[in-house]
């Protein structure tokens, strides 16, 4: 089999990003190395203050990953065995994995075809009809916020907290309020591919509740507020000072990168519409006053053949997500079957992420558009 050429336009080019930041990042890392203070400490505290302000939240708590952030949020809210948590089947595995890890049961509601987000009517029907539901995890997928107000209003009437899975949405806004300030707890990831990515794993929790913030700080260090005294059984999930130093440098660039992602998304939408191609380009939901475009995901007929065509032309793509969570083998015991969530299953067959990273040139964007056009017209 002939080997495919290296991607001329990769899905993401972190080398291009690093080239601009290299000296600043190295200086920040050297500062930490010289201090020999690697676990939590002043560097992490400074990042927490800066990100709390950026997200419009009172408190921010660093942790080891976005997955841990979700798990810690559930622990802090007392979610455990016998409880149910409503969420979407169309998201990264960690959303439901954290629920199971906490001992609770995921209960899925389908998503809207236009936004890829939780169908609020279906989600709130589950909140109202299932007494065991103790929390909701709303996913701000691909860089836009889910429709939080109606979800939070119904959940609040039942005393059910709403957790924001904002792993892909730092800086996104819902009716001019930032992701991470909308629910009981916001959960962020600093995985390198995120809009604000570290040089390894890292995560963050945000909240406006002082008691909850205090509990989260303890839970990330084995449930301890003071050495060798443990009020809860927590985990070891501390953000490294080296990662915090890198993220503090990158945070200064984040809004500029977001503007470039917005520009690239506008270009794709305009050109795909002008050419009349049979793909469905994503649009920002009406309530999304700022979409940060962590991914630009189209819905494409013959998705797999299109992807292969783009690969042959040196254009990187990815499928988010090829198997919805309700059909994952490890969740077989939940009892879901093919056809239970038709929109999620259709998206799994049609969705394709295109390059949208900030450093893309207009020429590269047009090359992607023309490659898509040639597939459908040839």
In short:
The protein is 40% helix and 14% strand. The protein is α/β, with parallel strands linked by helices and 378 residues long. The relative contact order is 0.17.
Write up this protein.
There is one protein chain. The chain is of the alpha/beta class. It has 2 domains: 16-251, Type I PLP-dependent aspartate aminotransferase-like (Major domain) (Aspartate Aminotransferase, domain 2, 3-Layer(aba) Sandwich); 254-377, Aspartate Aminotransferase, domain 1 (Alpha-Beta Complex), CATH 3.90.1150.10. It has helices spanning 14-35, 41-55, 66-76, 94-101, 120-129, 148-157, 210-219, 241-251, 254-274, 303-312, 342-350, 362-377, and strands at residues 59-63, 84-87, 105-108, 133-139, 162-165, 173-174, 177-178, 185-189, 203-207, 224-226, 229-230, 288-290, 296-299, 351-354. A hairpin with a 2-residue loop joins β6 and β7. α2 (41-55) runs parallel beside α8, α3 (66-76) packs across α4 and α3 packs across α7. The longest helix has 22 residues, at 14-35. The chain is globular, with a radius of gyration of 21 Å. The model has no long low-confidence stretch (mean pLDDT 96).
SS class:
alpha/beta
Estimate the helix proportion, in percent: 40-55%
Coarse morphology: globular
Distance between the termini: 24 Å
CATH level-3 fold name of the largest domain: Aspartate Aminotransferase, domain 2
Average of pLDDT: 96
What is the CATH C level class of the largest domain, in words?
Answer: Alpha Beta
CATH architecture of the largest domain: 3-Layer(aba) Sandwich
- Biggest β-sheet: strands ordered side by side in the sheet: 1-9-8-5-4-2-3
Helices, by number, come to 12
Low-confidence stretches: none
Element-by-element helix/strand order: HHEHEHEHEHEEEEEHEEHHEEHHEH
Largest sheet: 7 strands, mixed
**Rg over CA atoms:** 21 Å
| Secondary structure tally: strands | 14
